[in-house]
Each structure stands twice: as C-alpha cells, then as structure tokens.
Design a protein that fits this description.
- 78% of the residues lie in helices and 0% in strands.
- It has helices at residues 3-22, 28-38, 41-64, 74-90, 98-110, 112-144, 149-175, 178-185, 192-201, 203-218, 221-249, 255-270, 281-292, 297-322.
- Helix 3 (41-64) packs across helix 4 (74-90), helix 11 (221-249) packs across helix 12 (255-270) and helix 13 (281-292) packs antiparallel against helix 14.
- It is mainly alpha-helical.
Length: 336
C-alpha cells in the first residue's frame, strides 16, 4: 500500500482518538480516579486482547491460505488484524475503514481479487459468529433464569432474527455474494448508476470473488468450521474482559452472567452501527444488560468506561503498527 493511503487511515485513527478523549461522560479527575480504582485489572484487560486479536488473526489466516505455494507471513496478518479493528472502532458504520485497509495491505501478497474475497469472507465469518453468539446466549438465559411471557416473546423474536440471518449467511457462503450485493446496490437511488457501471467493468473480478467465497464452504469445509470455531472462541474469551472489570466492583458475579452481558451489549450496540465508535450505544447497552440481570446499572457504566479506555489504547497501538515494518512487496498474483 502507498504511504499516502496509510497516512489517510492514520489520520482517521488520530481523529477518532481525539473524539474519544473529548466524549468521556465525566470529569477527568473522576476518570483518573476510576482508572486508579481498576488497579492491576486495567493492564490485564488490555493484555487480554493480545490473545483475542491473535485468535482473530488465525481465523483470517486460515481463510487466506490455500493449496498454492504463496503464504502471507502470519505476523503480517496479525498486524493487519489489529490495525483493521482499530480503524473499525474509529469509523462510523463499522466497516468503512478497517476492511479497505486490509484489502490494500494484503493485495501485494495475493492479488486484489483474492485479497478482497478473503477480507469479505472473514468479515462475513466475524458477523456470522455474532449471530451464533447471540443465539447461544438465548439458550443460556433460558437455562439460568425464569422466563416470563414478555421475556419469552423477546427471546423468541431474537431467536428468529438470529436464525434468519444465519440462513442468509450460509446461503451466501454456498453461492457467493459479491454479484448479489452489487445487484442490491443497483436498487438504491443514489448508488444505482455507480453500481451498474462497477458491475459491468468488474464483472470478471466479481465472479472470481464469488467463486472463491463459494469454494471455502463447498471445498474447504474444515477451514470454514475451524475459522468459525476460532471466531466464537474469541468472543467467549472476550467475556473475560467483563468478568475482570466487574470483579473490581463485586465478587458476586459469574462468568455466565458476563457472557449474557457481553451478548446483550454487542446486540444493542450493533443496532447503532452507524455511530462512530458506537458512542453512547455501548454504554447504554452495558447499563441495560447489567440492570436486566439484577446488577446495579452503575456496574454497567463502569464496565463501559474501562472498555472505552481499552479501545482507546488499542486504537493507538493499531495506528502505530500501520507505520511499522512496511516492506515493499512485488506481487506475483493477478492484481486486477
């Protein structure tokens, strides 16, 4: 990738860090006191994400690998994963920054079409694991808590919603989805002309991407399920973050409760995907989830605060990694 493009992505991250600093909903003295209260748990929470990102990177690495002789160094994938997620935290509508960055960084190694398809595949797998995670939390809630009529209706609705999207994801994996996505864009008024022109100009590339997407599910089932398992594992390990933070405040919290808080919060915040860094949505989700599980709403607010600080630290790390070890690669692949 050209350094000028990296500098644009870097600028996006720096702006996000500045915004995050000025949107903490408390005085800085109070913020510092809360961070001091966290003590050793804060660095532990930050360090936990070394392993979570490692698992995410391994999932993407499995998708990228194929039967030919070309291999992307795993440390590069790890680096692109961290920086990509940092950009996703920083940009509204989630995937506006991280995914183009990953494609542009990966393209010199494997070619543009495969870089695009592997990133699309990983993003779909990442989102797919969201729905599997939410669906499993519904069964966990039913197992642990009494279900009233109102709660039952909500759980059934959420279950149908998750199953419906899981069905569409599986169907997309089987048949490819790049061409269909462009077809849907052609129905949107402001994007119609661009989508039609792009579909004509890049028809062969889009078909190649779809064939690579379908290949993962049809011919590389072991890779497909291994990548999905890794993404789910990363989500479950991520629940430890909430467990560590809540243990600062109380010893009367179980890992299963933290699992449910993580699931409900991620569902709530993703409903507000258009918000940069999910400002406000994440905090509200934590507070509602904690209150719904008979915990103080203040616990949810404090958890959201420490999580924001962790995100801020990893955004900064991701931005710095963009400027480190950027060796020029001459691709032997098709870069059309």
């Amino acid at each position: 990738m050209k350094n000028s493009y990296r500098n644009i992505f870097l600028l996006i991250g720096v702006i996000a860090i500045v915004i995050m600093f000025f949107t903490f909903d408390m005085e800085y003295d109070e913020l510092l006191n809360n961070l001091k209260r966290a003590g050793m748990w804060l660095p532990l929470v930050v360090f936990l994400w070394v392993f979570i990102y490692l698992i995410n990177a391994l999932s993407w690495y499995l998708i990228i690998r194929d039967n030919d002789d070309n291999r992307v160094p795993f440390l590069k994938i790890y680096k692109f994963t961290i920086s990509g997620f940092a950009l996703n935290y920083a940009t509204p509508i989630g995937l506006m920054g991280g995914e183009p960055y990953r494609i542009m960084e990966l393209a010199p190694y494997v070619g543009t079409s495969k870089a695009t398809s592997s990133v699309i595949l990983y993003v779909i797998m990442h989102i797919f694991s969201h729905f599997c995670f939410w669906l499993s939390s519904i069964f966990l809630y039913i197992f642990l808590y009494p279900v009233s009529m109102g709660i039952g209706i909500m759980l059934i609705s959420a279950g149908i919603f998750c199953l419906l999207f899981i069905y569409f994801f599986v169907k997309g994996y089987k048949n490819g989805m790049a061409v269909k996505a462009l077809y849907l864009l052609q129905k949107i008024p402001f994007l119609k002309k661009w989508a039609i022109r792009f579909a004509k100009e890049k028809k062969e590339t889009l078909e190649r991407i779809d064939s690579q997407i379908a290949e993962l599910h049809q011919q590389r089932k072991k890779t497909f399920y291994s990548a999905l398992f890794l993404e789910l594992t990363a989500r479950i390990i991520g629940c430890l973050e909430i467990y560590f933070i809540l243990n600062i405040l109380t010893s009367e919290v179980s890992f299963s409760t933290c699992f449910l808080i993580a699931a409900f919060t991620s569902l709530f915040s993703n409903l507000f995907f258009f918000s940069p860094m999910q400002l406000g949505a994440r905090e509200g989700g934590f507070a509602l989830a904690a209150g719904g599980l008979a915990l103080s709403g203040a616990y949810g607010v404090y958890t959201a605060l420490i999580t924001r600080v962790r995100e801020l630290i990893w955004i900064a790390i991701g931005m710095m990694l963009m400027k480190i070890n950027n060796n020029k690669i001459v691709s032997q692949k098709d870069n059309k």
